[in-house]
Design a protein that fits this description.
By secondary structure, the chain is an alpha/beta fold. It has 8 helices and 7 strands. The chain binds zinc ion (ZN). GO terms for molecular function: kinase activity. This is Adenylate kinase.
Length: 217
């Protein structure tokens, strides 16, 4: 059984990397963001709490994140292990998590802030059909138009430089103590998040001692 944590700033590609590992290793991919989005869509009590926090411009509280993760892991559908994304959020949670679940490795995707800005601020969205674009990696065929439905593309409301700076500051403040704790336990694997997706995946597998990743599989 493999128990991994994946950490990385927004735009580092951690969701994509986690999914690639999940598919190959039969892991449960536990994404706190995905769980919250599900609750919002299903209009659950947790969903209402998440919406309140977002409307107030706040992050969802650490306690609520912890509760959601505990419940999710309590389902025990992870026979081959799990890869968790978006947790732990503070040193206390990290300590608890290490002790309770005996984490094998923490994959830390490193991406310089400048590269985060470049990636995040080039994101565009079609408000009509929901298709995502990126002016660096996934350009639309016609500038400013959705390839699928032809609607004009927009920037997400929270992808402004100011909002991004606030998220970056928050990320570094929150992540530092968690990473420090994991480093003391010698479970952190730092991986450069700048190369193309396949190369990052290969580097992750190499450092974790897994069999190689072949893009043509
Ligand atoms: Zn569209």
């Amino acid at each position: 059984m493999r128990k991994y944590v994946i950490m990385g700033v927004q735009g580092s590609g951690k969701g994509t990397q986690a999914k690639m590992l999940r598919e190959d290793l039969d892991l449960a991919h536990i994404s706190v963001g995905d769980i919250f989005r599900w609750h919002v869509r299903q209009h659950t009590k947790i969903g209402a709490q998440v919406k309140r926090a977002m409307a107030a411009g706040e992050l969802v509280g650490d306690d609520l994140v912890e509760e959601v993760v505990r419940r999710r892991l309590g389902i025990h559908d992870w026979n081959y292990g799990f890869i968790i994304d978006g947790f732990p959020r503070n040193g206390r949670q990290a300590e608890f998590f290490m002790e309770s679940y005996d984490i094998d490795a923490v994959i830390h995707l490193e991406l310089p802030d400048d590269e985060v800005r470049r990636r995040v601020l080039s994101r565009r969205l079609c408000p009509n059909c929901g298709m995502d674009y990126n002016l660096i990696a996934d350009r639309p065929e016609v500038e400013g138009r959705c390839d699928i439905c032809g609607h004009g593309l927009i920037t997400r409301a929270d992808d402004t430089p100011e909002a991004l700076e606030a998220r970056l500051t928050d990320y570094h403040e929150k992540t530092r103590p968690v990473l420090e704790l994991f480093r003391r336990k010698e479970v952190v694997h730092d991986v450069d998040g700048r190369p193309p997706v396949d190369e990052v995946q290969s580097a992750i597998r190499k450092t974790l001692g897994l069999s190689g990743y072949r893009a043509d599989d």
